[in-house]
Design a protein that fits this description.
The protein contains 16 helices and 23 strands. The strands form 7 sheets. The chain has a 7-stranded mixed β-sheet with strand order 10-11-12-1-13-21-14. A hairpin with a 5-residue loop joins β3 and β4.
């Protein structure tokens, strides 16, 4: 009987990984203290959670900042920093009173002015925040602990928007920090959340340290998703940046780290075979992989070329580049696989295995003349990088002049901001992912917009889509929003600014001594964890 690739990986890694960890890491890493958790979380390069859509920065923000409202395990917004709140009879004015015990890490109290400044700054970036600011007649502090949002018209989804867990998230900052323009990064890292950022132990590129905020006062309710009491059961969390996956796994196996956020799928068998380790899916609905094309430059300034990409993709093949099939699913709805707005409108483009001939025909209709297509390839994110390589091969097979541009997150992030042509160091396609939940947050998620150069990377534009999205906050029932979602999806698959590559469940890896992890989509919380003796 032939030995499968997964069986070879399982046997080889289980036997060899424990001795493969570099001696330099062993020398620099003290044995785990019972009250210290070490987590391999990726490269944290941007700290301001308003300045980026990066999940890593969102995880950082979730640790050191707090929120006015947070989502519970049913994705329902619950008060967090807010103690009491009320809505006026005409449903246009929301009044919020902060709960007792809120204080900044520098020892000063949290005030209503901090909240007002934070809302105004956040309101410059995500579509939900912009909508609140645009519709607000006034956002002002009434006293030290009370502030109000007075709207020009009712907006029943306001608490839901404030509680959104999609980066950029409404984390409350000090007034001085929040007074900076959204384009100017906050670097102080002083919040009011359950963890304090340890500036003295920060080692950019290597590790960051978070200490338990001893003065943090949790809510009285039990922990429920991101809501309820944020109880910290450890003294310190060290965010490790170990870029080599073999080294990260060896550190996990030896007990030198406790948690690995994104273990590669090739390591799943070895993790499952180790009695000290476990895989755990925190995001039960999974993540959606997708590509964005630069709609401002050739060839994807032509809608036919973008539609060609819809027909070209073999989702199962793209997911097979990195994930076992039992963890993957196909996806055809713009609004995710498991959200209230999932639907089948205008999905005739989908064909199992893709349709290269149809894609080739669409490129011909677009007048494609051999223009170079530059695909950004992440070198520090294997799964996205693998998809980029397959995409380049698939495009070349139908006669498209595709070229890979390798780079890490920092290099790719800088290049993404370039709206110019590939001849001027621009780009054509990049690949990313987000949680299935995020595909439903139309008022918070910048990836769901179609507002051209004012929008998210790729810059697709549809005034018709934007007009429908503007109605989202005005309708009162779920059924009305579901009807809007169908119309919005019809337009999205016509303009093809986003192309789906597939859906995957991405388990984290942990030592079994680490328990109490919060199972939620989008972001990873550090509170509620317990580290029990081995």
């Amino acid at each position: 009987m032939a030995i499968s690739r997964r069986e070879m990986i399982k046997a080889g890694l289980a036997a060899g990984a424990a001795i493969s960890i570099p001696s330099v890491l062993r020398a620099q890493t003290a044995p785990n203290d019972a009250r210290t958790v070490r987590m391999v979380m990726g490269d944290l390069s941007t700290f301001d959670p308003i300045a980026t859509t990066a999940t890593m920065t969102g995880n950082h923000g979730l640790a050191i900042y707090d929120m006015l409202f947070s989502l519970d395990s049913e994705l329902i917004p619950q008060p967090q920093m807010v103690g009491k709140w009320a809505v006026s009879d005409d449903k246009k004015t929301y009044t919020f009173e902060l709960r007792d015990g809120l204080g900044w890490h520098d020892g000063t109290p949290v005030t209503a002015k901090d909240c007002v400044a934070s809302i105004r700054r956040w309101g410059q970036v995500p579509s939900g925040g912009k909508l609140i600011v645009e519709r607000a007649r006034d956002i002002s502090a009434l006293d030290e602990k009370t502030f109000a949002i007075a709207l020009k018209e009712p907006m029943g989804l306001l608490p839901e928007i404030l509680a959104g867990a999609v980066t950029p998230v409404l984390f409350i900052m000090r007034e001085n920090d929040a007074s900076l323009a959204a384009t100017e990064q906050v670097t102080a890292n002083i919040g009011s959340g359950p963890f304090k950022f340890n500036h003295a132990l920060a080692k950019p590129g290597a590790s960051f340290t978070y200490d338990r905020n001893e003065k943090y006062v949790p809510r009285d309710e039990p922990t429920d998703g991101f809501a309820g009491g944020k109880v910290v059961n450890v003294d310190r969390v060290i965010w490790e940046n170990i870029t080599d996956q073999q080294t990260a796994f060896a550190a996990l196996q030896s007990g030198e780290v406790d948690f690995h956020l994104l273990p590669p799928a090739d390591l799943y068998p070895a993790i499952e075979s180790d009695t000290n380790l476990a895989l755990q899916v925190l995001n039960k609905a999974g993540d959606v992989y997708f590509m964005r094309m630069n709609c401002l430059q050739k060839p994807f300034d032509n809608v036919k070329a973008r539609q060609a990409m819809l027909h070209l993709i073999d989702q199962e093949a793209f997911m097979r580049t990195s994930f076992p099939p039992e963890y993957t699913r196909t996806i055809t709805s713009f609004f995710g696989n498991q959200t209230p707005y999932t639907n089948d409108e205008n999905t005739g483009w989908y064909k199992k295995g893709g349709d290269p001939e149809k894609a080739k025909q669409r490129f011909k209709e677009a007048g494609y003349a051999g223009e170079k297509v530059v695909i950004l390839q992440r070198t520090d994110w294997a799964e996205a990088g693998n998809c980029a390589q397959l995409l380049a091969v698939t495009l070349r097979k139908i006669g498209v002049n595709a070229e890979l541009a390798p780079g890490d997150s920092a290099l790719n992030g800088a290049r993404l901001r370039n709206k110019g042509s590939v001849e001027n160091d621009g780009w054509s396609i990049f690949i990313t992912s987000e949680s299935d939940y995020e595909r439903s947050t139309t008022l918070s998620n910048p990836t769901l917009t179609a507002n051209g150069e004012q929008g998210w990377w790729g810059w697709p534009k549809s005034d018709e889509y934007e007009a429908l999205q503007a109605k989202w906050a005005d309708v009162e029932t779920l059924e009305e929003r579901q009807a809007l979602a169908r119309e919005m999806q019809r337009i999205q698959w016509d303009i093809a600014g986003t192309v789906l590559l597939g859906s995957v469940l991405s388990p984290i890896a942990r030592r079994k001594t680490l328990t109490g992890l919060i199972e939620m989509p989008s972001l990873t919380a550090m509170w509620n964890m317990h580290k029990v003796p081995a």
